[in-house]
Write a structure and sequence with these properties.
By secondary structure, the chain is mostly helical. The protein has ten helices and no strands. The protein is globular and about 40 Å long.
Length: 203
């Protein structure tokens, strides 16, 4: 009971900070929903009364923390309405609720259809839900690229979605095309090498 009291107090305090930290209503909703999802998941699966145990090995699948989520924190904005919605979508995808993530991102895009970052997030969510970068996912990445033609991020995250869903050859093609029109990027070169190695392993 003490553990639950601490958890609830922490959640209430964090929710207050989140809601006061932004004046954007949609960002408030997304942040509060992400918090509620995390606390709800703990309520369903957490067992605070058990003794400490070694952390099990994380499975390398789409429900673990994805490369998209990691790279999003490195390459895209971590603050603002779009970032809040993308954080919410990441949490839903980890909970195996990619369709709900898609619906949320589409709702956010109805409010802000010119957000490159939201279109990137939608492209990734569609790829996760469909298990591949299909026509709808490609369209979302293309919309992102059209809104920010000088930015490398739409093409980078399309390649990442291709790699994450098992199409290493397509990822390598996407990233090689990006490298041909961009400034030298050692990080991109590393991703190209990873995709090419995986493509060889898929032959």
């Amino acid at each position: 009971m003490i553990v639950w009291a601490v958890a609830l107090a922490f959640a209430a305090t964090l929710a207050l900070l989140l809601l006061r930290g932004t004046r954007e209503p949609a960002a408030r909703i997304a942040a509060a929903a992400a918090l509620a999802l995390g606390l709800g998941g703990y309520a369903l699966t957490g067992q605070p009364g058990l003794p400490a145990a070694l952390t099990p090995e994380v499975r390398n699948d789409l429900r673990a923390t994805s490369a998209f989520e990691t790279e999003r924190h490195r390459r895209l904005s971590r603050f603002g309405e779009a970032a809040a919605w993308l954080t919410f979508a990441d949490a839903l995808i980890r909970a195996d609720a990619s369709l709900t993530a898609i619906r949320g991102l589409r709702q956010a895009l109805d409010r802000n259809p010119r957000s490159t970052e939201l279109w990137i997030g939608l492209g990734n969510a569609l790829a996760v839900h469909g298990g591949r970068v299909g026509s709808a996912s490609r369209l979302a990445f293309d919309r992102a690229a059209g809104l920010s033609p000088q930015s490398p991020e739409p093409a980078f995250f399309r390649g990442l979605a291709e790699l994450e869903t098992g199409d290493a050859r397509a990822a390598a093609r996407t990233w090689r095309a990006l490298a041909a029109r961009s400034l030298p990027d050692a990080d991109l070169d590393r991703w190209i090498a990873t995709a090419e190695q995986r493509a060889v392993g898929q032959e």
